[in-house]
Amino acid sequence: MSLELFNQLEQKITDTVEALELMKLENEELRGENALLKQEREEWERRLQGVLSKFEDIESDSVS
């Protein structure tokens, strides 16, 4: 294998390793964002359930 081919291979390997490291960092960041979004969704669901419960209470009071 010529020195030039070896250098090209080495550069491609280096580029690939760097790309993988960046992807790992991005993946960690996205996991964090996903966790926050899940918390927000759960909070909205909880609040919505509270509002629906109030409507049900009003409805049951008006029927009684």
TrEMBL record:
Single GO cellular component term: cytoplasm
One of the Pfam families matching this protein, by short name: ZapB
Coiled coil (UniProt feature): 6-61
One GO process term, biological-process aspect: FtsZ-dependent cytokinesis
Keywords annotated in UniProt: Cell cycle, Cell division, Coiled coil, Septation
Name of the featured protein: Cell division protein ZapB
Organism ancestry: Bacteria, Pseudomonadati, Pseudomonadota, Gammaproteobacteria, Oceanospirillales
